[in-house]
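Project standup — Tuesday

K.O.: blocked on the structure for the chain from last sprint. Re-posting the sequence here as requested.
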Amino acid sequence: MIADVLLALPMGLLLAFTIGPVFFVLIETAITKGFRAAIAFNSGVVLADVVFILIVYFTTSSLLNELKDEPALFVFGGLIMVGYGLISFIKLKKDFRLTMAQKERGEDAALYMKRVNYIALAIKGFLLNFINIGVLGFWLGVIIVFAPKLDMNPHRITVFFGSIILVYFAIDLIKILIAKRLKNKLTAYHIYKIKRTISIILLVFGVFLIVQGFFPNAKKGLQQELHITE
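H.V.: unblocked you, prediction finished:
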């Protein structure tokens, strides 16, 4: 059991420091909405990972190998991410102007004082992670590589994946605590800039997914070149 946990540690570290849309939104949530809000968001992210792991474990690998490279899924996920980023970008400007107008009138209405909907944040984290088909590919690769090393034993596999998730979540807690320290030092303008930056990042990731969907052969060719180089 201890050996399985130690085997999982590098994967948990890799997952925790993978730079993607979830990473940036988690930091933004911690900075602008606080610790509990970030935990709610991250709980949704982890739930999506658990769902992916269950799908990978209980579905044939041949089917998932085809599914993870399905261009339509990349385009679909990319369009959702672009749409969300674009709507957020436009809405933030409107909200910021409203906030500034309220402050000029002497009203206590900063962006970060809005009531937080924790359930909505958990759903947001789940969907943002779930629409990224690359995450499915990641978990599929992990189980294909490590399941034979675990003798295909359900108990050992559960310990292994559970350890990955726990390490991942623990490191995210540290990231959230570090980001939270910035909250009280930020003005409404700084928060507005952070949120707009995250919206742009989501747009970029969404476009990247769409490009992967429209040019799947280019992706496969690049992967083959990398294998040849190695």
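K.O.: great, moving the ticket to review. The mean pLDDT is 76. Residues 71-104 form the longest helix (34 residues).
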